[in-house]
Design a protein that fits this description.
This protein has about 130 residues and is mainly α. It contains four helices and no strands.
Length: about 130
């Protein structure tokens, strides 16, 4: 299953449309994949015991600038990925159903690359992942 063999994948990951969606997302660096690390940085920045004057500025910037920008980035990236993948699946695989493929791709784009399952088969840029030794 960890090798990405189609026979052992869960039903949600099977099929040529899902495989195309995984490869499409994995071949790109998208802003939404940095959502979880950015959230961790924001969380840590709010826990640091800054002096009161600096703490108010840090929290103000995080709450009024950083967090809304990241949320809008995730929203726009997810909508873009969903529409783009559905459109390309419909063009390249006309016999396949596009139902759920856009959401599947958008959710994969939100995950940290190293934690994606099944593991990526392509590197950013589209080159195949080199075999492990």
């Amino acid at each position: 299953m960890l090798a990405g063999d189609e026979r052992y994948l869960p039903v949600r990951d099977k099929g040529p449309a899902r495989k195309f969606a995984r490869d499409w997302v994995d071949a790109r660096r998208l802003p939404s994949q940095y959502f979880l690390p950015f959230s961790l940085v924001i969380l840590l920045a709010t826990w640091i015991p800054w002096p009161m004057a600096i703490r108010a500025q840090v929290l103000g910037y995080v709450v009024t600038i950083g967090w809304p920008i990241m949320m809008l980035g995730v929203l726009f990236t997810s909508v873009f990925v969903a529409f783009k993948v559905k459109k390309e699946v419909a063009e390249k695989l006309p016999d396949e159903s596009v139902k759920g493929v856009g959401f599947y791709a958008a959710m994969r784009a939100l995950q940290i690359r190293k934690l994606r399952f099944p593991p990526p088969r392509v590197l950013p840029g589209g080159r195949p992942v080199p075999p492990k030794k």
